[in-house]
Design goal:
Largest sheet: 7 strands, mixed
CATH topology of the largest domain: Purple Acid Phosphatase, chain A, domain 2
Radius of gyration: 23 Å
Strand content: 25-35%
Distance between the termini: 76 Å
Helix content: 10-25%
Structural class: alpha+beta
Number of helices: 8
CATH class of the largest domain: Alpha Beta
Strand order of the largest sheet: 15-16-17-18-22-19-23
Bound molecules: fe (ii) ion
Shape: globular
């Protein structure tokens, strides 16, 4: 026994306390972000994309409530001068040592295509600086969005985010493998780094924060979850982005454009309920002239095995639905390469078919493509990039942009509003207008 003052202390307890003090002194203690007030402020898209916005942020405890104060004119961050406010209920994120509160506030009954200025927080935690967003219009003419996946927090990721924001996209899609953070509670530090990059870089030249839409990737999954619950199997992703849908698959409609966001076998399998939902959802949107699908693992990979499990089951169950309902483009990820497929229908090259664009290289180091021709690929290369998509009255334009901001591949598809859903006349094949970088490209 040892004595401190009048207290007799057992040697093991003293050793433990000493270790904790030493670890804390050396910065080895549990991670706790060095922040005051709200942090990790980000936007996600609601079901009604033209009349709402979902505002998300984190605070360290305690917090009284979740609150967004907003207005159509700038109030320079003075919280009590904003004309409107909406409240929500914070969720305690007990998985991480700091026990942070995750706030998700759904703004509703907003005007379309309108600028809103906002702050988040509460009287106890304090309020954020002022941000602004723009609600989406009720039409999709002029639709501009970016897509990529497999990001992390590298310098390349930051570069690509800034280049993406410079194109004034209405929103950004990240198709899985967002932060590459540890799935252990200590991963909070890497997620905070990722959110910091996102909120700093994903601001347009006009100052708009860019909403994010996500799908789940394999790097969002815990190795040995204790239960089948989504928030146990994917603790960070599900807590931060699970609110986008009741399931890991969901849809959004923006004017004439319908998007289905899918889970390629990470939290839920392709088969069963998800594929039944996909069939029903595409049937619901059968008259939408423009349809996109987004998911993580590719049906037509540029690096991995064509016969890999996820690719094969996706082609068997999802591709017939993409064909039937004439999905214009499917955004694929996971392979850390660049690729553009030929137009494919019924597992064959077909001028009416779907474009498969990818392959998830929005910050991760590009992998080498194998150099062997793959019959379904128009182009592939080892190039970090993101996709920029624009819709005009008659055309969908797809541009691949690298870390130098250069458009290194581009193609267009017609928007065919009057074309029937199936047995449609052949649409023009994708028209490449610029030669790609082809490091070992498969042609
Ligand atoms: Fe992946």
């Amino acid at each position: 026994m040892y004595r401190i003052g009048n207290q007799r202390i057992a040697a093991p307890i003293l050793a433990f306390v000493s270790l904790v003090v030493l670890a804390s002194f050396l910065g080895c203690g549990p991670y706790r972000p060095d922040v005051q007030g709200p942090f990790n402020v980000y936007l996600t898209l609601p079901d009604d994309t033209s009349h709402g916005m979902v505002v998300n942020y984190h605070t360290l405890p305690p917090a009284a409530n979740s609150e967004v104060r907003y207005d159509t004119v700038s109030r320079a961050g003075t919280a009590d001068t904003y004309s409107s406010h909406t409240e929500g209920t914070p969720q305690a994120f007990t998985y991480v040592p700091d026990g942070r509160l995750v706030h998700c506030v759904r703004l509703q009954a907003l005007a379309p295509a309108t600028t809103y200025y906002f702050v988040v927080g509460d009287a106890k935690s304090g309020y954020s600086k002022e941000y602004k967003f723009r609600t989406l219009p009720e039409h999709s003419e002029g639709l501009t969005f970016v897509n990529g996946g497999d990001m992390g927090t590298s310098d390349a990721a930051k570069t690509l985010l800034k280049l993406a924001a410079a194109r004034e996209p209405w929103f950004a899609i990240v198709g899985g493998d967002l932060s590459y953070a540890s799935r252990a509670p200590s991963g909070a530090k890497e997620w905070d780094h990722w959110f910091r990059n996102w909120s700093e870089c994903m601001v347009t030249p006009q100052g708009y924060s860019i909403p994010i839409v996500t799908t789940v990737g394999n790097h969002e999954l815990k190795d040995q979850p204790a239960s089948p619950a989504f928030d146990d199997r994917s603790p960070f992703y599900w807590r931060f982005f699970g609110h986008q849908g009741e399931h890991p698959y969901f849809s959004r409609k923006i004017g004439d454009a319908a998007f289905v966001f899918l889970d390629s076998g990470n939290l839920v399998p392709h088969e069963g309920a998800q594929t039944e939902w996909l069939a029903a959802e595409l049937a619901k949107y059968k008259d939408a002239p423009v349809k996109f699908a987004v998911y993580h693992q590719p049906l037509y990979p540029s690096y991995r095995d064509f016969e890999g499990d996820s690719a094969a089951v996706g082609r068997k169950l999802w591709e017939p639905l993409f064909d039937q309902y004439r999905v214009a483009a499917a955004f694929e990820h996971h392979d850390h390469t660049f690729k553009r497929s030929k137009r494919i229908k019924n597992n064959e090259v077909n001028p009416e078919g779907t474009l498969y664009l990818g392959d998830g290289c929005f910050g991760q180091k590009p992998r080498k493509v194998d150099g062997k021709p793959r019959w379904y690929l128009e182009k592939s290369s080892s190039t970090a990039h993101f996709w920029l998509v624009n819709q005009t009255k008659d055309t969908l334009r797809f541009q691949a942009i690298n870390t130098e901001g250069k458009v290194f591949d581009e193609c267009t598809l017609p928007v065919a509003p009057d074309a029937p859903v199936s047995n449609a006349p052949a649409a023009a094949a994708a028209q490449p207008v610029q030669q790609p970088e082809t490091a070992g490209a498969a042609k």
